[in-house]
Amino acid sequence: MQSTSAGSIGKIDLYHSLESICSERVRITLHEKGIDGWVSHVIRLFEDEQFDPEYMRLNPKAQVPTLVHNGNVVRESSIICDYLDRIGSSLPLKPGDSWKRARMQEWIKFSDETLYQSVSSFSFSSVFRDRLLSKSEEARETHFRKQTDLERTHRQRSCVFLGTASPYVLRAVAAWEKMTSDMDKELDSHGPWLLGEQFSLAEIALAPFFKRISELQYLQIFIEDRPHVADWWQRVQQRPAYIAAGVTCGPQELPAYIEAGRKYGPAIRELREQYRADPYGCGKRYK
Ligand SMILES: N[C@@H](CCC(=O)N[C@@H](CS)C(=O)NCC(=O)O)C(=O)O
């Protein structure tokens, strides 16, 4: 692969977290584009470094990632990936065909909105739930008070206090069920990638979400009867850029994810069965 040193396109600073899904998307893109020489600034989310006033001047939402290119700040992981695709010189990650590009943007929008929320709901109703419930009430409330987004805080609270009975978890199950079903049909008709022959930003947007729910032991529930998605996921994980980007919740966290998956996985499987049997009835339960 042709390599672009950050030196030749100017200075790139990436503020990221090693175990954040949104940061992983950006690191995969940097590696796919062969951009090296970027400066890594690790923000430790569990140490609340995202709330440091200096960092919040770059990212007022107190979230990672943030990219600074020659002094210009770029936020939002999918916007950063698109930006890197434009400034990097090696193989494009966006199709030239207008319809395929629109389709790619649909996948990215879906993953930014629905998948992002669903994986957060899965995490906060399982592994983060156990972690937050083991804290004192005061420490827990401090965590929620620091959040910058009311909707997100509401979702997190619901998942922590209700666990898999939270309506957000049922929504997450519905999202994964519908997405993997649609994906399986599309990959069957025109694989090997979502847009056909070209690996694109659509794969990069989705991959870290797949990895996180596979670490939670939930992925199998949705893909065990979907061979085209299972093959696609194997192919994604074999990409050198995916491997180099270090996509994982981290070796120290992994045992807690596996344990939470064992504990909560049966409830997720049960919700999936209920949803498949009666998708509209499931929706009514929460009216
Ligand atoms: N839409 C944003 C979301 C960024 C985001 O939620 N980042 C998470 C990590 S994946 C974060 O910084 N969380 C910090 C916190 O929850 O306090 C993007 O795609 O960049």
| CATH topology (fold) name of the largest domain | Glutathione S-transferase Yfyf (Class Pi), Chain A, domain 2
Overall morphology: globular
The string of secondary-structure elements, in order, is EHEHEEHEEHHHHHHHHHHHH
Strand content bin: 5-15%
Assembly type of the chains comes to single chain
Largest sheet: 4 strands, mixed
Reading side by side through the largest sheet, how are the strands ordered?
A: 4-2-5-6
* Contiguous uncertain segments of 5+ residues: none
State the share of residues found in helices, binned by percent: 55-70%
Average predicted confidence as pLDDT: 94
Helix run count: 15
Distance between the termini: 53 Å
CATH class of the largest domain: Mainly Alpha
Which structural class do the helices and strands define?
A: alpha/beta
Number of domains: 2
Give the beta-strand count.
6
What compounds are bound to the protein? glutathione
| Gyration radius over CA | 19 Å
CATH architecture of the largest domain: Up-down Bundle
Describe this structure in words.
The model has no long low-confidence stretch (mean pLDDT 94). A 4-stranded mixed sheet has the order 4-2-5-6. Strands 1-3 form a two-stranded parallel sheet. The chain is an alpha/beta fold. It is globular, with a radius of gyration of 19 Å. The longest helix has 27 residues, at 98-124. It has 15 helices and 6 strands. The protein folds into 2 domains: 4-87, Glutaredoxin (3-Layer(aba) Sandwich); 98-283, Glutathione S-transferase Yfyf (Class Pi), Chain A, domain 2, CATH 1.20.1050. The protein binds glutathione. Glutathione is lined by residues 20-22, 45, 50, 62-65, 76-77.
